[in-house]
Structure prediction request, 325 residues.
Amino acid sequence: MGEVGLKDRFGRIISYLRVSVTDRCNLRCRYCMPPEGIELISHEEILRYEELTTILKIFVGLGLKRVRFTGGEPLVREGFVSFLKRVREKFPALGISLTTNGILLKKFREELSSIALDSLNISLDTLDPEKYRCITRLGKIEDVWEGIHAFLNGKTRLKLNVVAIKGFNDDEVLKFVELTKRFNLIVRFIEFMPVNTVVWKEGDFLSIVEIKEIIEKKYLLKECGYENGAGPAKYYTLPWGGKIGFIGAVSQHFCENCNRIRLTADGRLRTCLFGGPELDVKKLIRSGLREGEVSILIRDILQHKPKNRFEIAFKEDSYMSRIGG
Prediction:
């Protein structure tokens, strides 16, 4: 690992990279994209695995500690699990995590188990089969649960990511909390983020404060802080030892501790989820620029990382499936 590390102009150490490997998905979640779906990036514009490996090599040299692979749905991309294996072999000290909707987990159980992922985040916004079919437009919750059970007794930490939506799943908050009694997993409640107003409506927003109030009417929560000291989730323990987290990116943003940047599926380095300055890393690599020169440009763009999300005007063409949710 690099010893110098990456710092922005506010002294935040950037050690965490989120990588979207595809904008394609096998679901059509209502808060992620419109009913007709989105215009997909052409295959020629998606970063190749060799290019992703080069970018990771550059970042590791700059002090990268953790990478999380997202999509779209990363497991729909051909060859992705084999690519993960190569990343683990080439960068053995790098923390590697995966975010998935869980539909294909059972299919790739053996291969993924052999990679020794640090964590596996599974998106699940309801425990009701009919509501799940409604919000995903295509999915079967039974497939997700088969994937969850396939990893419950393994060494990889399991986290359920629940996007909180008023009038949709606020009546299920306690049911999610109580999953930690039955299963060895962490439940994390995430505020619905206004990345695109086509799919985001103010009336759907449910704040972390409201979610905590629901829980604390029945259970005592004991705060245990941010994971790795930098968020995004602030964690709490429950009376039986279970653990839940809250990601309040809207009402309780963690910008002052932000340690991450994002790489979109088409190779743009994004300094903030909500927008801000970007660097077209794919263009630099395909133009034949040397790794050292790319490294310098990455350091430079980080000096323009916004202090907080309020400095940024939302980009109306942004969808979580493209940015990497």
Q: What stands out?
A: The first strand starts at residue 6 and ends at 7.
